[in-house]
Amino acid sequence: MTIVVGHLATPEGQEALRTAVTEAREREVPLVVVTNSKRPADECKAETDELVSRLAGEVEVRVELGTGDLAEDLIRTATSTAADLIVIGLRKRSPVGKLILGAGAQRILVEAPCPVLAVKV
Q1: Sheet of strand 3-6: strand arrangement
Q2: What is the pLDDT of residue 91?
Q3: Where exactly are the transmembrane stretches of this chain (predicted)?
């Protein structure tokens, strides 16, 4: 059992990561962080190494390189790890934007093999 979260440098991505760490610590399960592979490999490796060292004392963490399609990567990783939970971040939207959740978030909510915790910024 694990908790899966995507690693994004956005405010909602950072809030999702903070929440996922808290959930993993409280549930005493490993955390799987999915990173974006569309960036240069050395940049991803440096960021991943920093992330793992920062979280090492808090939770057991494993990083997986994504394909660039975050929704697909989170669903695939949650399925392959028999995840307890996927954590995603959402930003506040206008009244019209609230009617349209966003294709990635909607896909995760509909296709996830486990519960999804959405945290808003």
Answers
A1: 61-65, 31-35, 3-6, 85-90, 116-120
A2: 77
A3: none
Q: Which helix (H) or strand (E) holds 117?
A: strand 116-120
Residue pair 3/31 in contact by the 8 Å Cβ criterion: yes
**Cα-only R_g, the chain:** 14
Do residues 75 and 111 make contact, with C-beta atoms less than 8 angstroms apart? Answer: yes
Region 95-110: what's the mean pLDDT? 67
Element containing residue 34 per DSSP (H, E): strand 31-35
Length of the chain: 121
Segment (H or E) for 15:
helix 11-27
pLDDT digits (tens, 9 = 90+) for 24-63: 999 999 999 998 766 666 666 677 777 778 777 778 988 8
Query: Where does the pLDDT of residue 100 fall: very low under 50, low under 70, confident under 90, or very high at 90 and above?
Result: very low
